[in-house]
Design brief:
single chain, about 500 residues, alpha+beta, six-stranded mixed beta barrel, 9 helices, 20 strands
Length: about 500
């Protein structure tokens, strides 16, 4: 009887129950803590790998400028410029070099960010995007192992992974909307000081090196806050090619739209306001500050019958100056040794220029290119903001006499032209999405001429200043240039 009573009392006694509950709860809490520590370590490793692949992709993408060695430079930049560390992953803690990532290059990305990348390429000229994938890093379930020892349920190790996609685009903003065909192997920086004869390319015919045309046929790149906003037709073309200031929005180096250089309504007069010449469609714009001439307009032509130092406009009446000449072409154009692209040798022409304009004494012997000489003439006469005569006692003073104001920007006679490989990318008539090899700064050495036909064949004579693209670029009349490297995924 007493035994039954004790058994009954024991069954009804609830003292110590919490010990059992706490014992079971402790096991659960230990498991949760173990999982949280391990998941946290995995998350930290993933974050570290993600930062690493972001930087690797950005470094590689920064070299994807479409040149022949772009992929080689991209791989070198990623390997040499980027290093990081991981805290918990197995293996070495240092992240550096191509053993810790793989690179794949792509010509384009799908519109849907969740879609798989398929347009892989090994062509450096086509590579516009790069994907960096980190070598997977195992994060051991250290705390999970302790939990497993108590429960007998092992938790697998985690794999930390990361990948990033970056791309490169070069933009040219506020530029003259012009393009020209380049010869094989052309490089602006390697051609500094050399002359180019840019001749308008016709509609329907294949273009060769030296032919030029226009960008943006649909006129969607007009700066809506600049002087050309609200214009249309011939007046819009005149503004885009002749005005200074914020003219165009940005053009993507990866693809531009072109149209023929022989175009109805495009006249030499549109370009020549830079030389203080106002005629045809530009007649009446000499008082418009958007069409100011350059601070140096020596050109070897003067108003007809106006005598020395006259104050009238050239208009449609002009004649060769009796005692001044404009900057010369390369000597090979005179001798017939070249047709479209010169060699930079203007020795004989320089002698004639100095003899005629300066009485045989060269005031700027240190200027090696025509652009340097042009700048030296401006500076010697008090700078671009001065009206001081560049030439004295001659038919030309070198300063504008038609327009009441002159530009304070020496680059007023500089245009930026999109250089296109017309062999690899045939251009004939209007063509869309044409890649640009580089944007080239060209100094106009003399007024633009035409053959009087309709549409006319225009001749633009200019000297290569160098490449306008890349890095920290200028903000003068010749445009603004930006290299944009960004993450896409």
């Amino acid at each position: 009887m007493r035994l039954n009573t004790r058994i009954k009392q024991f069954a009804q006694d609830d003292r110590g129950t919490m010990l059992v509950i706490w014992g079971l709860t402790f096991v659960v809490f230990l498991g949760i803590a173990a999982m949280s520590f391990d998941l946290g370590r995995t998350g930290i490793t993933r974050s570290e790998l993600q930062v690493f692949t972001d930087n690797v992709a950005l470094a590689a993408a920064g070299e994807l400028d479409g040149k022949d060695d772009a992929i080689t430079r991209a791989r070198a930049a990623a390997a040499n410029l980027i290093s990081d560390r991981k805290t918990f992953g197995t293996g070495g803690s240092l992240l550096s070099g191509d053993t810790d990532y793989t690179l794949t290059f792509y010509s384009e990305l799908p519109d849907d960010d969740t879609a798989a990348l398929t347009a892989s390429t090994t062509d450096p000229e086509e590579a516009a995007f790069v994907r960096a994938v980190a070598t997977p890093s195992t994060v051991g379930a250290t705390y999970g192992a302790a939990f497993a020892a108590l429960t007998g349920n092992a938790r697998p190790n985690e794999q930390a992974r990361a990948s990033s996609v970056a791309g490169f685009t070069q933009y040219a903003c506020d530029i003259t909307p012009l393009m020209f065909c380049i010869p094989p192997g052309f490089s602006a920086d390697a051609s500094v000081g050399e002359m180019i004869l840019l001749r308008s390319g016709g509609n329907g015919a294949a273009w060769g090196p030296g032919n030029f045309g226009f960008l943006d046929p649909a006129k969607v790149r007009v700066d809506d806050e600049g002087p050309c906003a609200g214009l249309n037709g011939a007046q819009l073309d005149a503004c885009l090619l002749g005005a200074e200031g914020s003219i165009t929005q940005c053009f993507n180096q990866r693809g531009v739209d072109t149209e023929p250089g022989q175009k109805v309504g495009i006249r030499d007069a549109i370009f020549n306001v830079r030389f203080d010449i106002y005629k045809a469609i530009m007649n009446g714009k000499r008082n418009n500050p958007d069409y100011r001439p350059a601070p140096n307009v020596i050109k070897g032509i003067v108003p007809k019958g106006n005598g020395k130092g006259g104050g009238s406009c050239i208009g449609n009446n002009e004649e060769l100056s009796p005692d001044t000449v404009g900057l010369p072409r390369d000597d090979c154009f005179t001798t017939g040794g070249c047709s479209r692209f010169g060699d930079g040798n203007w020795t004989a022409g320089r002698i004639n220029y100095v003899d005629t304009n300066y009485g045989g004494v060269d005031p700027h012997p240190g200027a090696t290119t025509r652009y340097e000489y042009y700048l030296a003439e401006i500076n010697a006469a008090g700078g671009p903001g001065s009206n001081g005569a560049i030439l004295s006692g001659l038919a030309e003073t070198g300063r504008p006499i038609c327009a009441p104001n002159q530009s304070v920007d020496p680059e007023r006679r500089v245009i930026v032209v999109a250089a296109i490989d017309c062999v690899a990318n045939p251009v004939s008539g209007s063509t869309t999405d044409v890649p640009v090899e580089e944007f080239v700064k060209v100094f106009l050495t003399e007024p633009v001429g035409d053959d009087g036909a309709s549409p006319p064949t225009l001749d633009i004579w200019g000297e290569v200043i160098g490449s306008a693209g890349g890095g920290a670029a200028g903000t003068g009349d010749s445009g603004i240039f930006r290299d944009v490297v960004q993450l896409y995924r």
